[in-house]
Amino acid sequence: MLPAAAESGIRSIVLTMHMPAFRRCIDHDDTVFLVTGCQRPEVSLTREYLLLLTRQRLVVTRQSRLTGRVQVHLDAPLSDLDDVVWRTNERGSAVEFAVTTGDTRHRFFINRGRSRQLWRVNAQFSGLFAPVPITV
Question: How large is the C-alpha radius of gyration of the chain?
């Protein structure tokens, strides 16, 4: 998990706060592909979330500004995710990622300052999820 977080530029203090929640959700032998900061467009864009993607699970956590507690926002096996889509915005500065679990649609924006990191996010999604064809 540490190399993926370092590559995303996540500060160690932030990762340390979220680690217990991540550990409760994933198996110790599960391979971590991506750890990155993200935001939800339905909620204030100032609220930060951490997205963890492994071979088996998607986990999204957030830290309460009031109490400082880290809470799990989404914890789902990849096999339970439906309608997985992602796309890079027009400027190439962010990836919008959306999944459905049960009857709830979850949307996240992953902002990346460097194109290499954005390319890696797209590559990880492409490696784990089958692209959904877009019909016109």
Answer: 14
**Beta strand residue intervals within 1-136, DSSP E:** 32-38, 49-54, 57-63, 70-77, 82-88, 94-101, 104-111
Q: Mind listing the pLDDT tens digit for each residue in 23-61?
A: 999 998 999 988 888 888 887 655 689 999 999 999 999
User: Which residues, 6+ apart, have CB-to-CB distance to 68 below 8 Å?
Assistant: 17
Binned at pLDDT 50, 70 and 90, residue 80 comes out as very high
CA nearest 99: which of 79, 120, 121? 79
State pLDDT tens for residues 106-126: 999 988 654 457 777 888 888
In angstroms, rounded to a whole number, what is the distance separating the alpha carbons of residues 106 and 103?
10
Distances (CA, A) of 81 to 4, 75, 110: 22, 10, 18
Task: Report domain 2-128's class.
Answer: mainly beta
Strands 94-101 and 82-88: antiparallel
- Give dist(CA 118, CA 38) in Å, integer: 12
Question: What predicted TM-score, i.e. pTM, was given to this entire model?
Answer: 0.84
